[in-house]
Amino acid sequence: MPKMSGGQAVIKSLEAEGAEVAFGVMGSTLMPTYDALCDSPIRLIAPRSEDGAGHMADAACRVAGGEPGVLLTTVGPGAAGAIGAMGEAYNESWPMLHISTQVPSQFVDKQKGVYHDGPDQMKLFKTVSSWQHRITKVGEIPEAINEAYRRMRTGRPRPVFLEIPSDVLNAEANAKILPSANIAQPSLPKKAIADAIKRIKKAKNPILWVGGGAVKSKAMAEVKEIAERLQTPVFCTNGSKGVLPDDHPLSLGNMLSVSNVLQEEVLAKSDLVIAVGTRFSQRATKQWTVPMPKNIIHIDIDKNEFGRNYKPKVAVKGDAKAVLQAMLTGLEQEGISAKENRTGKTQEFKKKALEELKKRQPAEFNLLQDIRKALPRDAIVASQSIMGHWTRFGLECYQPGCFLFASTYGSMGFSFHAAIGAKARYPDRTVVSFCGDGGFMFGSGEMATIQKYNLNMPIVIFNNGGYSILRQRQEMKYGRHIGTELSNPDFMKFAESFGFKGVRVNEVGEVAPRIEEALADGKTWVIEVPIEFAGYRSAAETEQLLRGATKTV
Fold it and tell me: Per-residue pLDDT tens for 494-534?
């Protein structure tokens, strides 16, 4: 059993679990762990804030198909700075290993005024992680990290939190590095699967409703196979965009919550919903008002989701991939398949839905189609702002992990941070960030991170002078606004100060060509779009709105 420092044991254990990149902000108590990274193949990305580091670790996990992100922080304010990012990962069910330091063991929880000390640090993370554990000796480090990965790879994936006192990281002792955590697959609920197959056999107009759980279990092939076998239209959610390619003839994408056509002509006329790895969230269901049929088969790894929003006739607890494989075997044995090809009808519905949305938001949807043509098929898009919200519905994705969005927790600044995390994980992939001016400024210091690690990408800033979504709601409700109008730097000069190219466009038709030029250049471009998207307003109209169309308090 080799002798090593606590910091070395941390890094060797992460290597054993297959970690390739770690994100973290340096602190004095982190030095033993960082020193061990000097001799490791694990790449370190050192952002300018712990919040940014956490979102980057989250995004790196999402684009890598659920391989846990790694976050390293120092005790006290360093660890606490990542709570918002952990909340984002927790609410979207993505695994993240957050390893923080702690004050020396003799002072833990004594509140003696040691530098960076705080009362019961682990308690801070109980609501945003599935497990919290303090390590007390060097030999325990491999076991704890192994257990952390086992938990993140078992059941519903979520962040975990480990803390290690600084004296343990500095100490040297014998430590046995363990092989990657072994995960045992739980047994399948055979009766529930059999009941589901009976209902599928009787259904005349079934549909598939696929959530992020299908992505986390890597059930893409099974979703495609069951959709084609049953000829079911497929709805996805924010978390499952691309689980079935958006250009597949049975895909209806993520337009249900904004399309009356799909609600009235597809969902309302279905007699069975096969729901896979979804919680039927507020946004996906128009605040739980969509006309769901009484016949619901709900497949999920977390039994607590059954009946939380819609009551299923059959609840199937299990990994989405394993359950769908068993169901496909049962359908084959029973000779159950569709009696007619429904791809033509599905495409008609999709075309009607797109026409419906283009009439409501022509500028947004025309722009999104132009942007899609400018991007390679496997491009990763991180999105926020008003325009970012429309990407959920109007930007096609062809594989999972290509769309990064703060869906439920809704952290401001997520898009820019997430884009950097994705690019750090896959430096050779095309990554684009769509931000609002408000969201971008939450993490604008990370321009230095892009520069340092050569993580080049187009950054598109839709500059409407503030938190436009909130401002518009204030105006609608109160006829005035407060706290939602922002002042910004000159984004062109800001980009140039980092050695990047800054471009300002004043017409919506210029956006996609500038993105295309940026990708061809291979360097970081900041593309500022001073256009208000709520309908479509020009830059001049936006300025007029901000100067006096409404009363500012």
Answer: 999 999 999 999 888 999 999 999 999 999 999 999 877 65
> Which two tokens mark 24?
């973290």
- The secondary element (H helix, E strand) that includes residue 97 is strand 96-102
pLDDT at residue 358, as a whole number: 87
Return d(Cα 402, Cα 279) in angstroms, integer: 21
Query: Hey, what long-range contacts does 298-306 have (CB within 8 A, 24 or more apart)?
Result: 299/196, 299/213, 299/274, 299/275, 299/323, 299/324, 300/213, 300/275, 301/155, 301/156, 301/213, 301/217, 301/277, 302/155, 302/156, 305/278, 305/279
Q: For 341-354, what is the mean pLDDT?
A: 96
- Please name which of 301, 329, 332 lies closest in space to residue 316, comparing C-alpha atoms: 301
What pTM, to 2 d.p., does this model score? 0.93
pLDDT at 181: 85
| Distance between CA atoms of residues 62 and 239, nearest Å | 10
Determine what percent of the chain falls in helix, strand and coil, rounding each to the nearest 5.
45, 15, 40
Name the residue among 386, 389, 390, 388 with its Cα closest to residue 358: 390
Report in angstroms the alpha-carbon separations of 191 from 58, 194, 198, 311, 327.
36, 5, 11, 18, 11
Reply yes or no on whether the pLDDT at 156 is more than 50.
Answer: yes
| Three-state SS at 235 | strand
pLDDT confidence of residue 495:
97
Domains of the chain: 3-174 (3.40.50.970), 190-349 (3.40.50.1220), 361-552 (3.40.50.970)
